[in-house]
Design brief:
heterodimer, A: 99 residues, mainly alpha, Helix Hairpins, 3 helices, elongated, B: 623 residues, 2 domains, two-stranded antiparallel sheet, globular
């Protein structure tokens, strides 16, 4: 398992996440896509941490997971509130901040 | 006890701030007496200073500077907040706080029914503070601060009745005229600092004889610029037009500010700077000439006016003209003596006029008065005393001070025969207009019985009686004044009695004026009409005050207004307004374009972010 493999997997997962975020309309799925992107980065950090014999990457990965968890809590709460008030979940319709 | 002198400033200031901040929480009567008490306290402290000065040798009485704290300390310039106690400042303060106290007491009665009673007293206290600061300043800086503050207090008090349009306009006029003078003073202070490197009186006056020789350009310019301030404050030609209009304010204000104290600040300034003025004889001639001109000019106008307060206002200008004549011929302590007696009898005249106006329900036209001698006996007697003192009737206060001025106009260092002659004419006018006003007001039959004139309350008549006593006896303070002030002015004033003839002529001019007034106004209307007809063009000229206001309007106000209108139409609307509006409009256009990007579509934002990220990555990798 070489470093090219880690890079390739990470880039693929990240692209899937980015693509999902852009093309899906359901905020829950978009959230999952964001998680995919974060995990792609985590995978890269952990993989390179083992190649370079340094623990820094793993520490970063842990911090990112913590932040992602916190973010999910807030994000899900927002999504839930939006659904309760509007009875639908389509990001294209949620555009009241339009300039 | 010199260390107590800061109380003279502190007490009226405390009165002003106390009434301004807490006035609405305390009863009216308490506030009024509180204001009087602060001024009375300042008077007592001033008396203590007088006692302290007397405990010393005459030569040691000068230059007691009490430094409160250093205010500005920097390279080449330092300024202390300090107080100068010397015979001149104590003398002036005795007049300011003493007469000020009496007028405060009088105001309790006069302003009794005014809804903004306490605002009036807080302004009055502010004025006393400002005037004390002006007098006690130990350097030109605080002189100018006090100078500007009395202008402010005067502005506030003239325009006290803010719902009266003429009063507000008069206040503005007074302020503008005074600011012309302030500008002169400030430039003078700059020049003094340039030449002497300090603003401190003691150092400047000490260095003056070595820095300049007599009639140098520098000293002439400095003295002239100081004079501009003095002319504006003391209502001398050509900066006099504000004083008659200032009579729109309440009468105690006219008595305190526009007769007894503030308008004499110009005389005080010249007396204070006597060391500078003695080195500028050209300026001295100018002072004497302008003083005489004002005395004649204002006296002649006063002869035909019908508003009782305006007559007294022009008389004030005329009397200050006499004081300027005295300082102009170099007899400073005579000017200060006249300043004091004038403060007594002119304050009394104004307060008497106020009592009349109060009793006549606000009527100021002397044609509608008359016969008041029966209904207002106290006012009548005290007003008569003041009128006699003003016209220089023998043995009253005005007689002694004016006689000294007239004799010195001939005999003093810069005096000459022309000064003497013109001064005698002005004295004759004084007697005439004073008694014309007096007869109109008090003699004959009442012309407005429907107004039910009545005597004023005791709180108003008591100050009248005190001032009447001073107007009678004040003349005997002359020798004391000259003796007390002689250290400041470098020696005593020589007394001139050698020309009995000149003196007799002067006295008979005063009496002559009175007699003419009696002849015209006591012996029926027929002669009056005849005289009026004969002198109609002259009368017209005098009644319109030599058209000074109209000339200023034509020469200054109209062109300035024209320039203003032009600037408004061209520069303002076409230039500044246009560019400001255009900037705003363009910003709005641009931001409308930019706000297209904020579509509210989250997925579009995300796409843009990804695209941006990819672009940056491509740049990083391939470039």
């Amino acid at each position: 398992m070489g470093s090219e493999f880690v890079l390739f997997v990470s880039a693929t997962v990240f692209s899937i996440g980015a693509l999902g975020f852009v093309i899906r309309k359901n905020p829950l799925v978009m959230f999952m896509s964001v998680e995919l992107m974060l995990n792609a980065v985590n995978f890269l950090l952990v993989g390179y941490s083992s190649f370079l014999n340094s623990l820094d990457g793993q520490i970063f990965a842990l911090i990112i997971m913590t932040v992602a968890a916190a973010e999910v809590v807030v994000g899900l709460a927002i999504i839930l509130t939006i659904f309760r008030t509007r009875h639908e979940l389509d990001v294209d319709h949620i555009n009241i901040l339009k300039g | 006890m010199y260390s107590l002198s800061w109380l003279i400033l502190f007490l009226p200031m405390a009165g002003f701030l106390g009434l301004a901040w807490f006035g609405r929480y305390i009863p009216r009567s308490v506030g009024g007496w509180f204001a009087c008490a602060t001024v009375g306290g300042a008077f007592v402290v001033t008396l203590l200073q007088l006692v302290q000065l007397y405990a010393e040798n005459p030569a040691d009485r000068l230059n007691h500077v009490l430094t409160l704290y250093p205010w500005i300390v920097s390279e080449g310039f330092s300024l202390n907040v300090s107080i100068l106690v010397d015979p001149l400042s104590v003398f002036m303060l005795l007049v300011v706080t003493g007469v000020g106290f009496l007028i405060h007491v009088y105001s309790i009665g006069y302003m009794h029914d005014d809804p903004e009673y306490l605002r009036f007293f807080s302004y009055m206290n502010l004025f006393i503070f400002a005037m004390s600061l002006l007098v006690l300043a130990a350097d030109f800086f605080f002189l100018i601060v006090g100078w500007a503050l009395v202008g402010l207090a005067s502005y506030l008090l003239i325009g006290f009745w803010t719902d009266k349009k003429s009063a507000v306009l008069a206040a503005r006029k007074a302020f503008v005229m005074n600011v012309i003078g302030d500008v002169g003073m400030v430039i003078a202070a700059f020049m003094i600092f340039e030449h002497f490197g300090t603003l401190n009186y003691v150092e400047v006056f000490k260095a003056a004889p070595t820095t300049f020789s007599s009639n140098d350009d520098g000293i002439l310019l400095i003295t002239f610029l100081l004079l501009v301030g003095a002319f504006a404050k003391s209502a001398q030609i050509p900066l006099h037009t504000w004083l008659p209009d200032a009579m729109e304010g309440p009468t105690p204000v006219s008595a305190l500010i526009h007769a007894a104290t503030m308008v004499t600040a110009g005389v005080y300034l010249i007396a204070r700077c006597n060391a500078l003025y003695m080195m500028a004889p050209f300026t001295m001639y100018l002072i004497a000439a302008v003083g005489l001109l004002t005395a004649l000019f204002a006296g002649s106008i006063a002869m035909v006016q019908y508003d009782i307060k305006r007559v007294i206002a022009y008389s004030t200008m005329s009397q200050i003209g006499f004081m300027f004549l005295a300082v102009g011929v170099g007899v400073f302590s005579v000017a200060m003596f006249h300043l004091m007696t004038h403060a007594f009898f002119k304050a009394l005249l104004f307060l008497g006029a106020g009592s009349v106006i109060h009793g006549m329900a606000g009527e100021q036209d002397i044609r509608k008065m008359g016969g008041l001698r029966f209904v207002m006996p106290v006012t009548f007697i005290t007003f008569l005393i003041a009128a006699l003192a003003l016209s220089g009737f023998p043995l009253t206060a005005g007689f002694f001070s004016k006689e000294e001025i007239i004799m010195n106009a001939y005999h003093a260092e810069f005096g000459n025969f022309v000064y003497w002659g013109l001064a005698v004419i002005a004295v004759g006018m004084t007697g005439f207009y004073t008694f014309r006003m007096f007869f109109y007001t008090f003699m004959g039959n009442t012309r407005s019985p429907e107004l039910r004139p009545h005597e004023s309350p005791r709180v108003m008549t008591a100050p009248l009686m005190v001032l009447a006593g001073l107007s009678l006896a004040g003349g005997f303070l002359g020798p004391w004044t000259h003796d007390f002030l002689s250290p400041v002015f470098g020696g005593a004033v020589p007394v001139h009695h050698e020309d009995a003839m000149l003196e007799i002529i002067a006295v008979s001019a005063a009496l002559g004026g009175i007699v003419v007034a009696v002849a015209i106004y006591m012996t029926g209307k027929g002669q009056l009409a005849f005289v009026k007809q004969m002198l109609a063009p002259l009368y017209e000229l005098l009644f319109n005050k030599y058209f000074f206001d109209e000339i200023y309007d034509f020469l200054i106000v109209k062109p300035v207004k024209g320039i203003g209108q032009f600037m408004e139409e061209r520069a303002e609307k076409g230039g500044i307004d246009f560019s400001v509006d255009e900037i705003g409009r363009q910003v709005r256009e641009v931001s409308r374009g930019i706000s297209m990007w904020q579509s509210g579509k989250v997925r579009m934002y995300a796409l843009n972010m990804v695209a941006g990220m990819v672009t940056i990555l491509l740049f990083v990798i391939f470039l």
